[in-house]
Task: inverse folding
C-alpha cells in the first residue's frame, strides 16, 4: 500500500531542488510587492488603508484571503475528515449570509462615516470608553492570534520539511514584517490576492488526484458510507432535530449560534476583515467587497472539506488522538501520498502562503488600530502624518515581536488553537450585539454602549472560564461557544435596553450617517463610470450568493 | 484630531495613492506564467514514478498548463483594460483626472 510509504519518515515530504525554486520564487515576489507598494505611500491613509483606492475585485479577494489562513485550511479539512459534509455549515450558513449582510446593510455606515477602523465607529456612535475598550481588546487579540498562526506555521514546516521550530517562526515573522512595514496595507492586500491564487493552485491538484484515487465523487461517497463516519457524514441537515449527528449540534444551534451570533460577529465586526473593504475606492466597491468574497467562499469547501473526506477514506488510521495521524494532518498527508515534485512545491508554497495571509491580516489590523485608535487618540495627538506612518511601522515591528513571543508561549500548550478561537468568538459576539443595536436604534445611549459591551464580554468570558473549570457541563467546545456567544448576545440586548432607559441619548445630528433612519449616507455620491451596471448591484450580487448557498445544500441535504 | 478634521482630511487624502499604484494583475500574471512554464516542463519529462504517485494523472503537465493559462489571462486582462483607477500618467494630472473620470468625487 502506498499509504505505508511514509511511515518511517512520518509526515516528511520529499522536496527536491525544483520545489525549493518554486518556493523561493514566491517569496521573492512577495517581498517585491512590498517594495513596489512602498512607492505608493505618501500619507498615513495610504499606509493604513491603501489610500482608499482599490478596485472591488482586489479588496474582495483580499477579504476572502485574510480569512483563508492556517486555521481555515488545515482546520476545515480536519473537520471534513471528522464530521463530513456538516462542515459545510461553516461556509454556507456560517459565512455567506453574514458577508451579504455586511455588504448590503452595514457597509454604508462603515464606509459612509469615513471611519478608519471598527473601534473608531464605536467612538463616533458611543463614546471614548467604548472605543478604548474595543481598541485594546482587538489589539491584544490580534497579536495573540498572529502568534498562534506563526506557531502553527512552524509546526507544519517542522513536520513537513524538518525545519526547526525557531527558524520557521523567525523566518515567517521576518517576511511578514518586511512586506507590511515597508508596503503597508497595499502590500498586505496585494499579497493576499496573490496568495489566494497560489493557495488554490496548491489545493486543486490535491483534490483532483484524490478524487481520481477514490473513483470520483460517487466513489468517495460510497467509501465514506462504508467508513466509521458512515451515512451521517454525507448529510448537512439530517438528524439535526436532535444532537444525534456528527457535529452534535441541533439545527437551532447551527442557524442561530453558528449562523447568526458567531458568524455575524466574526465577519461584520472583525476589523482584520472590515479593513479590506474600507480600503476600497468608493462606496460601491466597499459594499461589493464582502459580496465578491462570498462567491469564492461558497466554493472553498470543494478544496478543503472534500480533501478531508478523501483523507479519511484513503489514509488508514486517520483520526488518532496524537501522532502523525491526527485529523489536522489530513491535507499534509494527502500531499505526501499523492503529489509528485513540481505540484508538491506549489502546494507547500500555497500552505505557507495561507499561514502568512492569516498572520498578515492580523498584523495589518493591529498596526492600524494601535496607531489611529490608541496612539493618535489617547497618547500623542495632532502630530504630522509622517509621524503616524512611522508609528505604524514601529507598531508593526512591535506587534510581530510580541507575536513571536506569544508563538513560543503557544508552543507550551497542546490545544491552544481551540482556546484562542473560542476566546475570540467570545469577544466578537458581544461586539456584534452592541453594533447591531447601536446601528438600528438611535435611542441607544453612549453609556449603554460601554456597559453593554463590557457586560456582554464579561458574561461570555465567565461562561468560558466556568466551562474550563468544569462548573458548566457542555459536551463539546463547540457547544460552549454557541452558548457563550448566545448568552453574551442576550446580555448586551438587555443591558442596552435597560441602561438606555435611564440615560440621555446622543443628539440626532451627531448620529447622522452612523445610525439607520437618520440619513446622512450618500450611496451614490462617489460612483465611478461602470458602477451603475446591473451586475454591480449589491442587492443582486448578495441575493445570488444567498440563493446559491441554499441551492448547494440540496444535493447533500 | 477632532471628527471634523477627520472627515476633511480623508477627503483630501482619498485616492492620492491610486495614481501611483502598480497593477497587481501584472504580478499575478507574471508569477503564474513562470510557474506554469516550469511545472509544464517538469510535467513533460515526468517519469513513471511521478505519474504513478499521482494515480496515473500527468498532474504536473495539467497543473502547469492551467497555471500558464491563468497567468496569460491576467496579463491579457491588464493589456485589454489598463488600470481603471485614475490613470497612472504622472503626479501632476491626478486631481484633474479624478475630477474628470469620476462623475463626482466628494
Result:
Amino acid at each position: 500500500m502506498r499509504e505505508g510509504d511514509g511511515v518511517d519518515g512520518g509526515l516528511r515530504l520529499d522536496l527536491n531542488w525544483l520545489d525549493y525554486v518554486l518556493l523561493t520564487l514566491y517569496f521573492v515576489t512577495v517581498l517585491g510587492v512590498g517594495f513596489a507598494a512602498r512607492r505608493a505611500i505618501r500619507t498615513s491613509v495610504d499606509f493604513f488603508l491603501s489610500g482608499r483606492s482599490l478596485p472591488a475585485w482586489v479588496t474582495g479577494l483580499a477579504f476572502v484571503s485574510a480569512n483563508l489562513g492556517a486555521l481555515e485550511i488545515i482546520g476545515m479539512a480536519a473537520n471534513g475528515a471528522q464530521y463530513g459534509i456538516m462542515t459545510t455549515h461553516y461556509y454556507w450558513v456560517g459565512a455567506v449570509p453574514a458577508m451579504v449582510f455586511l455588504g448590503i446593510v452595514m457597509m454604508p455606515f462603515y464606509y459612509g462615516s469615513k471611519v478608519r477602523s471598527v473601534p473608531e465607529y464605536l467612538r463616533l456612535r458611543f463614546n471614548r470608553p467604548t472605543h478604548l475598550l474595543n481598541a485594546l481588546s482587538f489589539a491584544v487579540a490580534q497579536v495573540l492570534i498572529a502568534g498562534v498562526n506563526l506557531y502553527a506555521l512552524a509546526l507544519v514546516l517542522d513536520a513537513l520539511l524538518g525545519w526547526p521550530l525557531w527558524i520557521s517562526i523567525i523566518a515567517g515573522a521576518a517576511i511578514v514584517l518586511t512586506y507590511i512595514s515597508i508596503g503597508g496595507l497595499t502590500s498586505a492586500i496585494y499579497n493576499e490576492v496573490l496568495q489566494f491564487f497560489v493557495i488554490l493552485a496548491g489545493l486543486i491538484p490535491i483534490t483532483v488526484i484524490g478524487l481520481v484515487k477514490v473513483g470520483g465523487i460517487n466513489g468517495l461517497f460510497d467509501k465514506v458510507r462504508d467508513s466509521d463516519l458512515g451515512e451521517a457524514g454525507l448529510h448537512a441537515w439530517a438528524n439535526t432535530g436532535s444532537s444525534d449527528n456528527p457535529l452534535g449540534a441541533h439545527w437551532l444551534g447551527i442557524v442561530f449560534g453558528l449562523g447568526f451570533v458567531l458568524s455575524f460577529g466574526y465577519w461584520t465586526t472583525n476589523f482584520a476583515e472590515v479593513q479590506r473593504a474600507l480600503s476600497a475606492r468608493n462606496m460601491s466597491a466597499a459594499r461589493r467587497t464582502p459580496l465578491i468574497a462570498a462567491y469564492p467562499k461558497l466554493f472553498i469547501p470543494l478544496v478543503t472539506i472534500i480533501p478531508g473526506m478523501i483523507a479519511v477514506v484513503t489514509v488508514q488510521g486517520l483520526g488518532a488522538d496524537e501522532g502523525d495521524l491526527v485529523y489536522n494532518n489530513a491535507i499534509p498527508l494527502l500531499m505526501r501520498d499523492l503529489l509528485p515534485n513540481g505540484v508538491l512545491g506549489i502546494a507547500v508554497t500555497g500552505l505557507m502562503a495561507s499561514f502568512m495571509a492569516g498572520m498578515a491580516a492580523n498584523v495589518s489590523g493591529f498596526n492600524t488600530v494601535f496607531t489611529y485608535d490608541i496612539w493618535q487618540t489617547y497618547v500623542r495627538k495632532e502630530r504630522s502624518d509622517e509621524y503616524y506612518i512611522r508609528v505604524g511601522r514601529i507598531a508593526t515591528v512591535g506587534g510581530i515581536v510580541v507575536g513571536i513571543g506569544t508563538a513560543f508561549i503557544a508552543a507550551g500548550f497542546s490545544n491552544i488553537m481551540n482556546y484562542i478561537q473560542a476566546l475570540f468568538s467570545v469577544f466578537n459576539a458581544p461586539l456584534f450585539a452592541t453594533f447591531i443595536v447601536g446601528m438600528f436604534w438611535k435611542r441607544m445611549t453612549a453609556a449603554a454602549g460601554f456597559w453593554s459591551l463590557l457586560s456582554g464580554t464579561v458574561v461570555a468570558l465567565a461562561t468560558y472560564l466556568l466551562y474550563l473549570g468544569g462548573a458548566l457541563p457542555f459536551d463539546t467546545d463547540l457547544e460552549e461557544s454557541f452558548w457563550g456567544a448566545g448568552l453574551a448576545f442576550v446580555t448586551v440586548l438587555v443591558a442596552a435596553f435597560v441602561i438606555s432607559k435611564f440615560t440621555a441619548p446622543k443628539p440626532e445630528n451627531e448620529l447622522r450617517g452612523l445610525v439607520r433612519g437618520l440619513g446622512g449616507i450618500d450611496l451614490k455620491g462617489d460612483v465611478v463610470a461602470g458602477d451603475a451596471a446591473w451586475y454591480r448591484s449589491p442587492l443582486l450580487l448578495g441575493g445570488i450568493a444567498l440563493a446559491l448557498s441554499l441551492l448547494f445544500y440540496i444535493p447533500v441535504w | 484630531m477632532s471628527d471634523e478634521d477627520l472627515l476633511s482630511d480623508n477627503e483630501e487624502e482619498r485616492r492620492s495613492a491610486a495614481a501611483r499604484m502598480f497593477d497587481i494583475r501584472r504580478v499575478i500574471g507574471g508569477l503564474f506564467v513562470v510557474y506554469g512554464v516550469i511545472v509544464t516542463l517538469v510535467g513533460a519529462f515526468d517519469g513513471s514514478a511521478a505519474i504513478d504517485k499521482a494515480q496515473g494523472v500527468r498532474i504536473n503537465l495539467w497543473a502547469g498548463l492551467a497555471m500558464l493559462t491563468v497567468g496569460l489571462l491576467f496579463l491579457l486582462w491588464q493589456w485589454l483594460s489598463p488600470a481603471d483607477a485614475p490613470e497612472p500618467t504622472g503626479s501632476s494630472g491626478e486631481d484633474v483626472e479624478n475630477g474628470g473620470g469620476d462623475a463626482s468625487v466628494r
Notes: Residues 1-16, 85-106 of chain B have pLDDT under 50 and may be disordered. The radius of gyration of chain B is 22 Å. Chain B touches chain A through 52 residues (CB under 8 Å).
